[in-house]
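Support request from a user on the community tier.

User writes: "When I paste my structure tokens into the form, the page sometimes reloads and wipes my input. The last time it worked, I copied everything first. Here is what I submitted, just in case something in the input itself triggers the reload:"
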């Protein structure tokens, strides 16, 4: 094999290895989530169910039950949730049906687990409760009991979410290699 061909293969291999080594964690998590979607999605459903139970969704005639809103999600000014058909007098979103309400809650849980919005995987159920519910101590206790865990457990611990490593691309990383 010619030296120039060997050098080209070596350089291409190094660039590929470097590109692989600097893959952002977010991309890895997306792949992991896709591969383990059945497990991840069922965990989101389980946590969503625990929230719905704590919110009283399964009690006929309760506000979450009447509004088809298992998460008792409050309306956000200027934003309409998919399937939202109104807002009740307490400021809770009214969904077209239970499926739309469940989808909104599961999406909110997904956002909690990927660090979007006011929640993060590093937050405990108690910390989430402080933002999520007026009676946060009772809410946290109920959600944790429904999940069969301690209210101080974090979402990262609960869902086996790896720590996020900050990633900043270095524009000079390949200098001197090529």
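"...and here is what came back when it finally went through:"
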């Amino acid at each position: 094999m010619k030296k120039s061909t060997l050098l080209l293969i070596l350089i291409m291999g190094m660039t590929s290895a470097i590109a692989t080594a600097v893959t952002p964690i977010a991309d890895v998590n997306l792949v992991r989530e896709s591969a383990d979607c059945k497990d991840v999605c069922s965990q989101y459903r389980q946590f969503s169910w625990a929230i719905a139970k704590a919110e009283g969704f399964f009690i006929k005639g309760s506000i979450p039950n009447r509004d088809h809103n298992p998460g008792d999600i409050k309306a956000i000014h200027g934003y309409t949730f998919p399937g939202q058909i109104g807002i009740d007098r307490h400021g809770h979103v009214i969904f077209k049906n239970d499926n739309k309400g469940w989808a909104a809650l599961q999406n909110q849980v997904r956002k909690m687990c990927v660090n979007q919005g006011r929640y993060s995987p590093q937050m405990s159920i108690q910390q989430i409760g402080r933002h999520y519910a007026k009676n946060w101590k009772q809410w946290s206790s109920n959600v944790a009991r429904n999940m069969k865990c301690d209210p101080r457990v974090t979402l990262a611990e609960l869902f086996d979410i790896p720590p996020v490593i900050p990633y900043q691309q270095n524009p000079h990383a390949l200098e001197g290699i090529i």
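Agent notes: The reload is a front-end session timeout and is unrelated to the input. Residues 38-159 form one domain. Residues 2-38 have pLDDT under 50 and may be disordered. Escalated to web team.
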